Amino acid sequence: MKAAVIVLPGSNCDMDAYHVLKDLLQLETELLWHRETDLSKFDLIVVPGGFAYGDYLRAGAIARFAPAVQALPDYIEAKRGFVLGICNGFQVLTEAGLLPGALARNIDRKFICKSVTLRIENADSPFTHLFKPGETLELPIAHAEGRYFDTPAQLEKLEKNKQIFLTYAEENPNGSVNNIAGIMNESKTVFGLMPHPERNSETLLGSGAGLKFFQSLVYSLEAVHG
Amino acid sequence: MATKEFLVKVLIEPKPELLDPQGHAVEIAMHELGLETARETRVGKLVKYKVQAASEEEVRKKAIDISNELLVNPIIEIFSIEVETL
Hints:
Order of helices and strands of chain A: EHEEHHEHEEEEHEEEH
CATH topology of chain B: Mth169, Chain: A
Helix content of chain B: 25-40%
Mean pLDDT of chain A: 96
Oligomer: heterodimer
Number of helices of chain A: 6
Number of domains of chain B: 1
Number of strands of chain B: 3
Low-confidence stretches of chain A: none
Radius of gyration of chain B: 16 Å
Number of strands of chain A: 11
Largest sheet of chain B: 3 strands, antiparallel
CATH class of chain A: Alpha Beta
Largest interface: A-B, 18 and 12 residues
Radius of gyration of chain A: 16 Å
Distance between the termini of chain B: 17 Å
CATH class of chain B: Alpha Beta
Structural class of chain B: alpha+beta
Mean pLDDT of chain B: 96
CATH architecture of chain A: 3-Layer(aba) Sandwich
Number of helices of chain B: 2
Shape of chain A: globular
Helix content of chain A: 10-25%
Strand content of chain B: 25-35%
CATH superfamily of chain B: Phosphoribosylformylglycinamidine synthase subunit PurS
Low-confidence stretches of chain B: none
Strand content of chain A: 25-35%
Order of helices and strands of chain B: EHEHE
């Protein structure tokens, strides 16, 4: 099994994600420069947090045209492996149309950097199956554009398909509709969330609860690859 | 065919149904500065560029295409285009 963390110009959580996959989960992991287009050897691709291309125009708007991101639709279509977008990576995946919706400016206009309480809304996915349904956990958020938004029709579809796997449990820090913090695509192969599980994957940094998301993915891959 | 130079302005603003906190804050400041009747304030952005083309029609068509592809996110934004012959 092999994982890749895409490094875009302006990514700044790439090493955190790499550390979790490589050091904590002993997964063979590569940092993949954004000019690369061959994703075929990877079972998991992480689009990390940061400020790719300075967030110019809109967060993720220019990053979606990076060659490695342009290679994602074929990778997803072929069901080659899982794709995970964290924070800026989530913004990139929505801008690329690989996840529905958009991330607008936070409702109070501020960049918010703090720990928030989240609830697992759907534990029946490769990214969440080690959690209990309804379980709450704390993860840090650090973003200015995290207000999830979509049309009422699209939101209804997300709810109906149980694609919302994570919500803000106590306070809604950014004004996201339906308290949405993380969603997945219909085929449960692409996951995006604004909170940072990689920043709370060791007890040195908190409860370590974020590690379970990555473990879920690895166990799911092991079930496929043996 | 001879080409001319055009100036294109793409005006982008948050969708009407999307709460615009920046516009709201600016409007409060405008009220405090005496412009009490200001309402429906929206803060967007302007992208302007010069481009060579054979006709204004071609410029408009390409401006709409690049807006939908790159400049605008239609889920949260709307846009309008102004074209000026230079």
